[in-house]
Design brief:
The complex is a heterodimer of chains A (235) and B (489).
Chain A lengths: L1 E10 L2 E11 L4 E5 L6 H8 L7 E6 L2 E2 L10 E4 L11 H11 L4 H9 L2 H4 L15 H11 L7 E5 L7 H17 L3 E5 L3 H7 L2 E6 L2 E7 L4 H9 L6
Parallel strand pairs in A: 3-8, 3-9, 6-7, 7-8
Antiparallel strand pairs in A: 1-2, 1-4, 4-5, 9-10
Chain B lengths: L1 H14 L7 H31 L4 H23 L17 H13 L2 H19 L4 H25 L3 H19 L6 H13 L5 H20 L29 H13 L1 H21 L9 H12 L1 H7 L10 H6 L4 H22 L8 H26 L23 H24 L2 H17 L1 H14 L1 H9 L3
Helix pairs in contact in B: 2-5, 3-6, 3-7, 3-8, 4-9, 5-6, 6-8, 6-9, 10-11, 10-15, 11-12, 11-13, 12-16, 12-17, 13-15, 15-16, 16-17, 16-18, 16-19, 17-18
The chains are: A alpha/beta (235), B mainly alpha (489).
Amino acid sequence: MIEIHNLSKNYNGVSVLNLERISIPKGQSFGLVGNNGAGKTTLFSSLLDLIQPTTGYVKNGGYEVNKGEEWKTHTASFIDESFLIGYLTPEEYFYFIGDLRGENKADVDALLAGFEDFFNDEIIGKRKYLRDLSKGNQKKVGIVATLIGNPDVIILDEPFANLDPTTQIRLKGIIKKLATDKNITVLVSSHDLQHVTEVCERIVVLEKGEQVKDIMTSPETLKELESYFSGEEVI
Amino acid sequence: MIKRFLNLEWKAFFRSASFQVNLFLKILMGLGALYFIFVFVGLGVGLFFGLQKMELEPLVTVNKFLIYYFVADLIARYFFQKMPVINIKPMLLMPFKKSKIVNFALGKTALSFFNIIHAFFFIPFSIVLLAQGYSLVGIIGWHLGIMALIYINNFINVFLNDETVFVVLFGAAFIILGGLQYYGYFDITAYTGPFFQGLYETPWLAIIPMVVLVGVAYYAFTYFIKRLYLDAGLSKKTQTATTENMEWLDRFGKGSTFLKNDLKLILRNKRSKTTIFMSVLFLFYGLLFFGNAIEVYSGPFWRMFAAVFVTGGFLFSFGQFVPSWDSAYYPLMMTQNIRYKEYLRSKWLLVVIGTAISTILCIPYLYFGWEVLAAILVGAIFNMGVNAHLVLLGGAYIKTPIDLTSGKKAFGDKSAFNIKTLLISLPKMLGPMALYAIGHFTLGPVSGFALVAIAGLAGFAFRNKVFDMIIKIYKKEKYKTLQAYKQKN
């Protein structure tokens, strides 16, 4: 579904991302971990054609992302609050995204009905604009909005950050279900090793822009990652 | 301690993202400030003799209208004077007294351009008065009183910040009182004039405004110090959301999604609401031209200029910031499957609707004769047909992120100007003027109007071409624009 070829990004001669080849098949849940500055957000931004890579390209569903717009129809993403429109209410925002993705109000309402628990009665019908919601609630809105319109690829940057424990657990359930039941390719990045290992079938570790690990998740993965990040790994 | 604060302010100023604007603009702004200073000084020196020539007692006349001066000042301040929000939050935990923070913030407002500019009028005016043999003590008293009142305005504005209701009230009072006086029903200056005159005649009266000033300043100080908590003065205000369906807009087809969004954008954000206010102001601008209030502007082609101006208020103030209005969520727009053409069409439609509304509101200008109305209608056609495209084209080059929640800076968005946008703006005004002049001086006014109208109608034909051009720019500049919008001031 997603092919990364020789992707690199330099800022003023400093390399922040340098990946030879990563191929993510359809329906895989893909986790990205790495310390600050490892290049996670840079990678996601270039997947979404929000920054221009120095070399290489990304193919999404067969389309090179910087050459056309076709990939946008089957890709949904939530990177940060710049994916929200502050002066809309959550409902209006969902309908707006629905409009863009060819779903009518009834479709959107049907989808939202499934997330009543997730919203914990703090989002819908509260007569608040998105800009006035708390960070965690904004995130919930952003994440659910990516599910509108049956995308094939969903990209979420740090979806677990700022969420309360209950919501984190629910979100894990949602992400797992997306990949297994609906055959959706889900890409998440996170600092929380436990969450990622629980949710993702495959985990890639970045360090200073380079891929240092590519693991198919197994019961030992969490241990392996922990020992890697604590610097105790014996190679 | 004060030194540290100043140091922080200094860094905030020089390191802000918007500081690195081109030199050209800084010169332009400097020239703007110089212009105002020049106007005020000129007024200060010239007013005395002007009034004398009209056989009015200068000081009495000035005092008579001073009340309007102060109200206008207050309104101008509300819109353009920035509040002293030094980065207070990180200061709260630092080991010094809160009073210092408040003192510094309030002290900073005292040095504002909006206080100092008045000196350029009042000081020359007073010097002329002295030279003409007015009493020195009287002038000093008058002067101190006026100064105190200006600073009272300064503090009132600090309180009024964000209280739109009061400003509307002040504005309404201003217009109503002015109207009542003009038509001779009620003259407020009969009551206020003597007070200001009294400041001169009995100089110790100046103590009254000064005492009030001290009171207001003290009140401002305690008001802020009490509210220096995250959940009080430093908290963001939240509004209760209103939901509008705007289903009636669906008739505009596919673009209606954006159109609905744009209307919400305009209605729900402070900054975009200012554009509406500006467009209303533009409407009145025509009085200067059509009423022959200013002699220089009475040439026939100035009429065309004014017509483009009055009907184009919304067009200019909103249109030139497309797509910056969407800067806060530009990454969202860039990752959704948006057809640029629909996006542009919706903005264009909005601008055209805005122009149409302005035009309808301009119909009372018929009072000045059919030629004025004809000019306005023709100007509106030109605005819709040609300028609506040009303004969107210019906007494509503007990469200033817009902070929707702040109403200030409607004028001062610095990097909103660059050579490219300036070049694109020239034909907006000069084009119709030139066309009209050509027609007017060869075959008469009717052919002048016809020429402008034809140009406007011809513009519609190029709509798709211009849209394609703009889309190309959007695509070419995509990464740069995303990068620029990330920087917040």
